[in-house]
Amino acid sequence: xxxxxxxxxxxxxxxxxxxxxxxxxxxxxxxxxxxxxxxxxxxxxxxxxxxxxxxxxxxxxxxxxxxxxxxxxxxxxxxxxxxxxxxxxxxxxxxxxxxxxxxxxxxxxxxxxxx
Amino acid sequence: xxxxxxxxxxxxxxxxxxxxxxxxxxxxxxxxxxxxxxxxxxxxxxxxxxxxxxxxxxxxxxxxxxxxxxxxxxxxxxxxxxxxxxxxxxxxxxxxxxxxxxxxxxxxxxxxx
Lengths: 115, 113
Description:
The structure holds 2 protein chains of 2 kinds. By secondary structure, chain A is mostly beta strands. Chain A has strands at 4-7, 10-13, 19-25, 31-37, 43-51, 54-57, 64-66, 76-78, 87-94, 105-106, 110-114. In chain A, strands 2, 4, 5, 6, 9, 10 and 11 form a 7-stranded mixed beta sheet that branches. Chain A has a 4-stranded antiparallel beta sheet with strand order 1-3-8-7, with no helix packed on it. By secondary structure, chain B is mainly beta. In chain B, 0% of the residues lie in helices and 53% in strands. In chain B, the strands form 2 sheets. In chain B, strands 2, 4, 5, 9, 10 and 11 form a 6-stranded mixed beta sheet that branches. In chain B, a hairpin with a 4-residue loop joins strand 7 (62-67) and strand 8. At the A-B interface, strand 4, strand 5, strand 9 and strand 10 of A face strand 4, strand 5, strand 9 and strand 10 of B.
């Protein structure tokens, strides 16, 4: 079955530590995205990538880093520089073709808690 | 500055009645709009979309209306069912290469039996 998989579902981190969230898709999508959701707020874009080896900062990229070495994978590292990392993180993917409207497909999310 | 707004944080509707969820946007470059449904601790799932060349799109119980001049769209659910209880996000994108999706803050719909 095609889909997008995030792991782990729950993650605990001590303050001052970096942590990496995994996102894998087998939908053959070119574009991948990372969003963050906080209580009572919408989804805010952290980073996105339209093609392998290229990615762009979203609205709230500070304290985060990503890589896109493979089409299928878009891991997100939450660094110790992120001041308020406790949140629900969502990864998504979509096709990107010129002038093609398409929807994004989401993973199940990772809830990160800093202790 | 929020480009996509959902001004009602929550909405309660009786089972069998119509649910109307509203969304406003400010960026005139947006030309594709989507609605997502989200249950707690899960990722959003795509519900329905509409391109700016249309003013209405229907899929079963779900209909999305787009009013470009008002920069407003709405999602109608008829009839509403208890399983529709979830948070609904409106999203918008500009249909050029390098698009990304801008989401509203969501509206929590409760369908009461």
